[in-house]
Write a structure and sequence with these properties.
By secondary structure, the protein is an alpha+beta fold. It is built from nine helices and 14 strands. It is globular.
């Protein structure tokens, strides 16, 4: 094999590849997710780490279908699905080190899905050596999706409509900011440390669905998202989409988002100024 015929590293996805990924996710939702929504039996829902951490037949089936399609499109890529990672923890390290990795959360917001709440989504991201180069946040209920590449805008799209460019909010004083804080996923001591800060903001909540939380951030409906659970299937797509919509995605210690980081706190905010003021407010409470 000559140098000219060696496979070239993928530094960005083509429009054709992106279109194929979007169609694959939409087909999986139509085939494997939506027919099971509000139609699950007790035996099709099980716990992973506890009653708040659920998995359903829809998660397994959608992940399998998406993975099959991705392996045809990217035969040399490392593929990291949330459900596969729960069975083989080494997949996460392989994805972080891979020249090209594709990360799937087949049903993000499984607790909502399993309880009949129409607030769930599919998250897919593509990374190169741990750095996101493509992200997708898909809502199966409305059949629309937000995507971004590392060098393009954040776009919200739906069938037969022109894509709409998204921008994060303008930010403002801390007392005017609304945010998502995954308080229940933090250790109890960190919950206790952060709880007194909640009245200092306009509104703090959580949707139990990273897909829709990051969609709200990219649309300018909330000003920040704070998380201490750094699963890449929850954050890789949303962190990059936040940046491409005009926001900032960094860990509280100042490092830019990267899936190789497994400990710490990720703060995604609408602007540089908002991120800095939020960091200055939040980081002291979470300091060891």
């Amino acid at each position: 094999m000559t140098a000219e015929t060696l496979p070239q590293p993928i530094t960005r996805l083509t429009e054709a590849q992106i279109s194929t990924i979007i169609n694959l996710v939409r087909r999986a939702a139509k085939t494997e997710i939506l027919p099971r929504f509000r139609n699950l039996t007790e035996g099709q829902i099980s716990q992973k780490t506890g009653p708040a951490d659920l998995v359903t037949d829809a998660d397994h089936a959608a992940e399998a279908m998406i993975e099959r399609g991705l392996r045809q499109l990217f035969p040399n890529a490392a593929i990291l699905g949330e459900e596969a990672a729960s069975r083989d923890a080494s997949l996460r390290k392989r994805a972080a080190e891979a020249e090209l990795a594709i990360i799937i959360d087949p049903v993000d917001g499984t607790w909502n899905f399993a309880h009949g709440l129409p607030l769930f989504g599919v998250i897919l991201s593509v990374t190169r050596f741990g750095h996101p180069i493509f992200g997708m946040l898909y809502d199966p209920i409305t059949d629309d999706w937000i995507t971004a590449t590392e060098d393009g805008p954040a776009l919200q799209s739906e069938v037969a409509q022109a894509p709409r460019r998204l921008s994060t909010s303008a930010g403002g004083p801390l007392g005017d900011l609304s945010g998502i804080v995954h308080l229940s996923l933090l250790p109890k001591d960190q919950q206790a440390a952060l709880a007194p800060l909640i009245p200092d903001f306009a509104r703090i909540g959580a949707l139990r669905c990273s897909c829709h939380e990051y969609r709200l951030l990219a649309q300018g409906a909330v000003d920040f998202v704070l998380s201490g659970t750094l699963n890449p299937w929850d954050h890789a797509a949303g962190a990059m989409i936040c940046r491409r919509a005009g926001g900032v995605a960094r860990f509280l210690d100042g490092r830019d988002y990267d899936i190789t980081v497994t400990e710490g706190h990720l703060l995604c905010a609408a602007s540089e100024d908002s991120w800095t003021r939020l960091r200055d407010k939040i980081a002291p409470a979470l300091a060891p």
